[in-house]
Amino acid sequence: MCGFSGLASASVRALVDFTAAPAYSVPSTDAGIPGVSGLLLEGPQGWGEFSPRGDADAAAAVVAAIEPGTVGWPDPVRGWAPVALTIPVGAAQRAAGRIADSGCRTVRLPVTGRAELAAAESAAIRSVRAALGADGGLRLVLAADSADPGPGLAALTESAGGVEFIELGHGSAHRAVELRRSTGAPIAAHLTGAEWAELARSLDVVVLSVAALGGARRCLRIAEQIGKPVVVASAGESSIGLSAGLALAGALPELPYACALGDLGWLAGDLVESARQLRPRAGRLPVAPMPPAPDPAMLERFAITDATELARWRERLRRVS
User: Fold this and answer.
1) Owning domain of residue 108
2) Which segments constitute the Enolase C-terminal domain (predicted)?
3) Is the pTM of the predicted complex or chain greater than 0.70?
């Protein structure tokens, strides 16, 4: 739980409204990309998004959600951040349109490396590479629960005509070493929990998510301790949550890779007015001093109305606040 449980002190409770937090669920438009559900927390300086994918991530996520409305984000050193798109294998034929619309020059492609999916994944890689061109950045992404891909991943890496790195949703130091040996590609992985230091030492690139690690300020401190190239990512959030990732991207001294923050377009909508939605233009997104406020009409449209689901989210928040 990252040592975060119980961090909502009496003073924080006086500033942040935990009991009346709006609950929402925005579906995805593609089976290969998850939707986003959660609660919005309002503090005196603005709003934060609490949308952990599971209970294990909830303690860090609530700290990250409280941060923008209370202590705020670190000061930025840049006003814009380059971003990457995720293109699911099943949507690879639409890659050219997505890339053209967003202007993004980097694509994340989730793969398994399994023999039974090799033909479909190889075809998807060819489609994405053709859409990007030889100078575009391509990353192969292995899901957190993916089994050992064996030699199939090495074949996919070769067919991609070069990859920036292979990205692990979660990983171990041993797995990172083995994948680097078998593929010859740089290895990146998402840091989570309290045991991030050992994993970070085994990686070529470190993936930081504000919600998974307890806020932009804590991510910035971790990046300083690691001393390795960093890429900023999101597990999938509305524009309110994405803005926290952009705050981190804006504060990092160096930003060598496009941030995995360009996937809002896969959602059926957003929680903020259209002018504030974080959809990539010219391959980048703006860094702002605070998150956009929710649009009441969008909150009503995507409000969780199922009593059981609503109670589940309220209880998840209660346990970590």
Assistant:
1) 80-295
2) 92-274
3) yes
CA–CA separation, 27 and 268 (whole Å): 6
Q: What is the CATH number of the domain that holds 236?
A: 3.20.20.120
Q: pLDDT (tens digit, 9 = 90+) per residue, 182-201?
A: 999 999 999 987 678 889 99
CA dihedral 181, 184, 190, 193 (to 10 degrees): 20
Closest by CA position to 166, among listed 235, 111, 94, 117:
111
User: What's the domain count of the chain?
Assistant: 2
| 264, two tokens | 């809002």
Task: Tell whether 177 and 31 lie within a shared domain.
Answer: no
d(CA 225, CA 12): 28
Output phi, psi for 70, to 5 deg.
Answer: -125, -80
Spatial separation of the C-alpha atoms in residues 61 and 65, rounded to whole Å: 6
DSSP 56-111: GGHHHHHHHHHGGGTT-PPPPS-SEEEB-EE--GGGGGGHHHHHHHH---EEEEEE
Does a structural domain hold residue 153? yes
Clarify whether residues 178 and 121 are in a common domain: yes
Q: Are strands 36-43 and 166-168 parallel, antiparallel or unpaired?
A: unpaired
Q: Write the pLDDT tens digit of every residue in 147-170.
A: 677 688 999 999 999 999 999 987
